[in-house]
Design a protein that fits this description.
Largest sheet: none
Helix content: over 70%
Number of strands: 0
Order of helices and strands: HHHH
Distance between the termini: 76 Å
Number of helices: 4
Strand content: under 5%
Length: about 80
């Protein structure tokens, strides 16, 4: 009887994880925290999407710096 309960608990936990991942992904997309939360799963199951996300993050970091010729850049010494 104990083994049956243990197997049932493992199956239930597995089902909860499978049901929870899509909900977590949807919540992460809405909140903008998808890279931090779903990054490892995306890297495993969809490497091309992971590489694209990393490239977008790199591009966002590059555009945050002020460029020469920007009005705010001229005021800095």
């Amino acid at each position: 009887m104990t083994q049956v309960l243990a197997v049932a608990a493992v199956v239930e936990l597995f089902a909860l994880v499978l049901l929870g991942l899509p909900r977590l992904a949807a919540r992460a997309r809405r909140g903008g925290t998808g890279g931090a939360v779903m990054g490892p799963f995306e890297e495993i199951w969809h490497p091309a999407a992971h590489r694209a996300r990393v490239e977008v993050e790199v591009q966002e970091e590059r555009t945050d710096a002020p460029l020469p010729g920007d009005p705010q850049f001229r005021g800095r010494a």
